[in-house]
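Field: sequence (string)
Field: structure_tokens (string)

Example rows 1 and 2, in order.
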Amino acid sequence: MLVPQLGRPVLSLCSRDGVAQIRRRIEGNVMIKRWVIAALFAGVAAGELSGQAARPRARELGVAPGIFAPGALNAITDVGGVRVGQVTVLEGDSVRTGVTAVLPHQGNVFLDRVPAPIPVGNGYGKLLGVTQVEELGEIETPILLTCTLCVWKAADAMVAWLLEQPGMEAVGSINALVGETNDGGLNAIRLRPITAAQVRTAITSARGGPVEEGAVGAGAGTVAFGWKGGIGTSSRRLPASLGGWTVGVLVQSNYGGVFQVMGVPVGRELGQYAYRRNVEEGSGDGSIMIVVATDAPVDDRSLRRIASRALLGLGNTGSSMSNGSGDYVIAFSTHPSVRRGHPDRASRRDSVETGRRLLTNPEMSPIFAATVEATEEAIYNSLFKATTVTTRRGTVEALPIDRVRELLTRYGAARR
């Protein structure tokens, strides 16, 4: 089942609890067994998506990190021009994965590049395109997120799509930027189950506006702190006295640690955390991709400083960036004055850049704080919105919202 854009579900055939019982009844009938089971799991998969709409975002529970206000959507798309497209790939009782695309602006990013660095918290990952971005300080393609073994298929599909675009007829080199986390706990990852058409759909369907969160797109099969993780987003808008700039963050959460919400030890209180078996049981490994966008006029040097603060937001949720974790931050600015044209067309852009004004070092501090806040809240949203997911590999439960609400109240952490 392919679910593009906002993950509109098909009709659920039965509840998840009924699947096991019905499956047992038909085990002896080989002729009907396979197609009935497939149909039942298609219904459960649809139910997984439909349940996300009813789950609250963090702010609805009074979880509002920091002091700055969010943008109108509290999403990365509050940064003007940024678009997000998602395709969720659900197949039978085994495939739960997808593609999430982030486009920095409305134009062709290859011909109108944006400054960007990629700081690394812990480098256990297969992020594609990182060395050229680090060398040149710019990105030239949309940012794609997917599952680990789908990285190269996603890159190939994106490059093919880009080569077809107007103005790309003479292009002979493209640095595709594709990030990943390993969703093999729920997803049949060895099938590498995404197609070129699905990648194209994620890119071409990208739009501004609200961003679907939870078990959608590249977050369909991810796990965070032992609960269902996924896609989450948040933003902060600075007051005019601090420049009025916006920072937006999108995450693909798939990592471990000792989960905490606004300092409340949720993971410990609910008995689910890293190293529990040593203290009891568990593992802290996993990965997270963090994408940070801002409309502030900053270059790749300053963006590196901004991006590194996203790791503070990650730490606030209980991550220790363990040995097997791939923790990457891709940060870019959409401000027109800092964009960089293709080298063959640089003269026009150079004339624009001559008179540009970049933010000074002291002006960066409120953007740093906004980045920490938005990253932390985006991660909370990725867990709060995600629903329980079941495949033949097992079930990963959604974060129990009612119990989290009780803990927030008990610790006095929820805003009223």
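Row 2 begins here:
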Amino acid sequence: MKMNFKSVRNKLGNGKVYCDPSFQRRVSWTKKDMNSFLSAATKGWARQPITLACVESCLDYAELQQDEPSIRYFRDLKERNYKYVSIDGQNRTNFIIDLINNDVQVSGRFFGQSDNPNLEGEYVDVKSSYLSKGNNCIFNKHRNVYEKIIHTQLHVNLYSQVSREELADIFRNINSGNPLNPHGYRQSLATPVADWVRKISDDNREMLKKIIVEEERKNMLDDEFIAKICMILMKKYSTREGQLVERHWGLAKTDIDSYYSLGLGYSNFSDPGCPYYVSEKVRIEKIIKIVNSLIMNQSIFTKLVPKRFVFACAHLAEYVHDNDLYIANYKDCAAKLNKIENDLYQESETKYTKDRQALLNKGEDPKHLKKTNYYYRQTQLPHQRDKRLERQKTLLEQIRKEQSDMGIRQLRKEENMAA
């Protein structure tokens, strides 16, 4: 179907559309983007449709199909008075609503209606102006452009019989010509891990700014980093038969994909048969709070915090939580952890050089001496499960020796019960 700009504001404004983060890129429009879109729209060049799903119709369909995850999803939206779910076109929709409501100014070369019946229209240069607010608004100074704008038609695709999982399929299909980065794809999946990782990332936004550069955050690499931390920390899983199994992941793309795919078909950690345990979820959230305290209180790194240090913090935080310990002073503990890390790094690098030289002195070929068996190299390989576990083991051995100096203390019984 088609809607003109005014209809978009009337039908989709006032909080009627739910912008599910699962289906939104992290790129907000700049003034240039807004002006370019409006210029193209007035010329009839805005071909990309706004894509929505009707909440009430999809809920009816889910109930007919007895699709419990979809029923919960759409029923929740209906109870919150949403009419539609935005699958694609959030920036366009928000801009049009703001434009008609006079909440944004535009400027540029726009195509307006012409008084000459022999001409389709004419170009008009518009300086920064609201649509219909103020003496110099477009309505007052360029009535032909105003009429063209409010009557500009856009294509709107409205889905009425799709499941929550199919919303993700539609989103990925729309973006197939403008590929999502791998984590944008994962975060659109109907799996409880996607929403959970997004929430942890949101709750730790300030910490992540110290670890991930802004450009990478736009591409959801901060969410991906949190997903990796969760994969490292989550050890216990449930099989379809309800048996507890322990698993340690690598952190390659295929591993992260598999971690997300485990939960397909479940909407919550508490769903019967869900492979992720609620207890592990709660445990990891507490451990990440400790990581956050270490990163936010450290004074070692004034710019970006190296990821290898963050992984070291995660190993320390897991040790502290799982052994009913606490950290007396996060700033001092982070400094001592960094010293342990640097000492282990330098000692292992020196040992590798000596071991290599010893082989050369014997006339033996040192090429069989693997760097990956040494701590300094293992810190660079968190994606390799076995090497990460070896690094963790070495680090924790040293932490246990120095935990008193690091200000790591045992929780008293009553504190442990409260925690």
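free_text_note (row 2): The longest strand covers residues 122-129.
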